Amino acid sequence: MSGDPAGAPPDAAGSGIRTASEADLPRLLAIQAAAFPDPHRALLRSGVRAGLALVALDGPAAPGEPGESDGTAGAVGAVGTGVTGPEVVGYALFTVDEPSVYVAELAVAPGHRRRGHGGRLLAALAARHTGCERLRLTTRVDNDDARAFYASLGFREVRELPGYYDGGEGRDGARDAERADRSDTGLGGNGEDDTNAGSDPNASDDADASDGSGENAESTDGVLLVRDLE
User: Fold this and answer.
1) What is the distance between the alpha carbons of residues 207 and 181, in angstroms, rounded to a whole number?
2) Looking at the 3D structure of the chain, how many domains does it have?
């Protein structure tokens, strides 16, 4: 796992990508809330504090898009201060459980989607963990756009996970199939932090699918995807 200091400039492994710092948390929590109807804030906070989150940087949101003037946009580490400059527009929350990296959450802010940030975050994760064998993540089995996006980045589907997402959860959620793999990776430990991780399909570069609003009380099957790292 890389250990560049918080606030370090973008690195060569992923232009406009750096490790998240606690100063980013207000912005990251706003992105999480926009991406997931049932956001797990403690999971995100613990990941950032453990150095297990990368952020993508970009310029202002597209005109008229949510996030431009709704109080969630702001300069890096300076939400609401009026300071101009590249802002945090997305993040990847992950755990490292040799020999793989599990992508717990992937989300991009409204107004900054379809600009390649999701792909750049995943590429940066791969570049920073060359000692690992693979990246892993989950998505809903009925989310065709997200599945196609991940396939375009070299992920392959290895198995379906029946009933993986609880009814009413309304978001991608890592559950029992991943808990044991992540038990010693720096996230979890209080009953909330180690459940319900997931990825925002809106983080994809060419898809704008919805995760759902939590109105459907039935559980949804998931699918586990893997990308080998060479």
Assistant:
1) 29
2) 1
Q: Please, what sign has the CA dihedral across residues 62, 42, 26, 17?
A: negative
CA-nearest of 69, 224, 74 to 161 is 224
Residue-wise pLDDT tens digits, 6-45 = 333 444 334 599 999 999 999 999 999 999 888 999 999 9
pTM of structure:
0.70
Q: What is the CATH number of the domain that holds 163?
A: 3.40.630.30
DSSP state of 62: P
Asked if the structure places residue 207 within a domain, the reply is yes
Q: What is the gyration radius of the CA atoms in the chain, in angstroms? A: 16
b (16+ CB within 10 A) / e for 24-47:
bbbbbbbbbebbbbebbeebbbbb
- Token pair 């997200």 in the structure block, residue: 146
Between the two ends of the chain, the Cα-to-Cα distance in Å is: 16
Q: Which two tokens stand for residue 143?
A: 């989310």
Report phi then psi at 87, rounded to 5: -115, 160
